[in-house]
Amino acid sequence: MSTTDDRRFEILRAIVTDFVDTQEPIGSKALVERHQLGVSSATVRNDMAVLEAEGYITQPHTSSGRVPTDKGYRMFVDRISEIKPLSSAERRAILSVLDSGVDLDDVLRRSVKLLAQLTRQVAVIQYPVLSAATVRHLEVVALSPSRLLLVVIVDNGRVEQRMVALNEDHDEDDIARLRDLFSAALHGKRLEAASAAVAELANSAPDDIRGAVLNIATVLVETLVERGDDRLVLGGTSNLARSAADFTPVVGGMDTVLEALEEQVVVLKILATTQDMGQVTVQIGEETQTENLRGTSVVSTGYGASGTVFGGVGVLGPTRMDYPGTIASVAAVAKYIGEVLAER
Question: What is the per-residue pLDDT across 249-294, written as a single tens digit (0 to 9) for each?
Fold first, then answer.
């Protein structure tokens, strides 16, 4: 990249930084005063004219300065060479908050609250994906001779409970046999591969408990193996009110963003495409491919442990966002969610 291109990027970087801080259009005089650009105001004005002609900045009003466009934010994000890491105190605070969670639900609730506080944006976390989870333990509890409670614990921290109605009564010995059969068949297996194991179990079960095996197998397959992963935890939606002015140019304003958040499938779809652990993805404006979110940016990544992705985590806010700080916070929280869940 030429020296001229480097200089123009520094001007763009300064415009993005100042606009994020002030929410006011940025003029050439302010840039020269605030930043050591090493060139005259005339050169800055000329470079700003080129940046505007190329679509990186725009002038919202004839008498105002310039603001970044989505294309400008994209160049800024793509050329972030160094993300400032969180301090040791911040990292310890994150781990302390998450490690205090009593169960999966509590850990995820704490995570969205913490991430929303760190970024001052809306935080979103997808519940661990069941299909990719491995069965750690399965318990069969008799509530009555013809009614069972299944408890399935998987390696990503999720605990699923299901009721099973049996076609006939069974005693404690039968329940113990059922527990042993299903535990042996499913322990250590991924739920996405569990259908075959459950089907084989139903075919080979002893005649006297085959009916019960079929009842349990049906519940497992229909409610765990074949169920979509559609649970999402939101936090910090009130932060949108702070940025209401950023959404006014968008058709429908902030209401359209709230509608998209209510339709969780929209956010889940975005998270599903950005679940590489250790790799934070930034989608800006129309890159979200969602009409109601074209005035927003989504910063997201995957969380998990031992190379297995449990789900997606990220933040959503206006395109006028502190991208370096947000990227660092999302990466850190995702890392610690995975560590905390892996230890449970």
Answer: 665 678 888 888 887 778 888 887 776 777 899 999 999 888 888 8
The two tokens of residue 65 are: 């300065």
What distance in Å separates the CA atoms of residue 194 and residue 154, rounded to the nearest whole number? 12
CA-based nearest residue to 124, from 288, 333, 339, 342: 333
Map tokens 């080979």 to a residue.
204
CATH number belonging to the domain at 88-129+230-343, selected among 1.20.120.140, 2.130.10.10, 3.30.450.40, 3.30.70.270:
3.30.450.40
pLDDT of residue 333: 93
C-alpha atoms less than 13 angstroms from C-alpha of 26 in its C-beta half-sphere? 29
CA separation for the pair 146, 240 (Å, rounded):
51
